[in-house]
Specification:
Layout (H helix, E strand, L loop, with lengths): L7 H24 L15 H18 L3 H20 L6 H4 L2 H16 L6 H7 L2
């Protein structure tokens, strides 16, 4: 589908934005209780609370494209740790251990860490400033 080729930079920025926003909601439910889920109101010093802070701050930074590479790398590592600690002990197969989302986030964030903020990002605006 060559007709989409000219839009690849725009689609990448949309991927980064939506990944950040979707990740951010995991942090908002833990720290802001919005939306309310079984994870709302977690203990900040717990492992889930620490992950929630990465989701909240890292998701916001990736979404707006500020310090995108380090934020995405940190989010990727958090998802890798989450997968190995929470999901892998239940089964080797992600479809059986409910770890598909953690694995997917891990690799999408790793790609974002390598690719950077893209055209529609604060990082791009900062690099153009005199």
């Amino acid at each position: 589908m060559k007709f989409l080729g000219p839009f690849k930079d725009h689609f990448y920025s949309l991927l980064r934005l939506m990944t950040g926003l979707l990740f951010l909601q995991h942090g908002t439910t833990k720290y802001l209780s919005f939306p309310v889920t079984k994870y709302s109101g977690v203990e900040p010093l717990s492992l889930i609370g620490a992950a929630g802070m990465v989701e909240l701050v890292g998701g916001a930074l990736v979404a707006i494209g500020l310090f995108t590479r380090p934020a995405a790398f940190f989010c990727s590592g958090t998802m890798a740790v989450g997968y190995f600690l929470e999901h892998l002990p239940n089964s080797f197969f992600p479809i059986l251990n409910w770890g598909e989302l953690a694995a997917l986030y891990c690799f999408v964030f790793l790609y974002i860490a390598a690719a950077g903020g893209g055209k529609w990002s604060i990082d791009a605006l900062r690099s153009r400033a005199p």
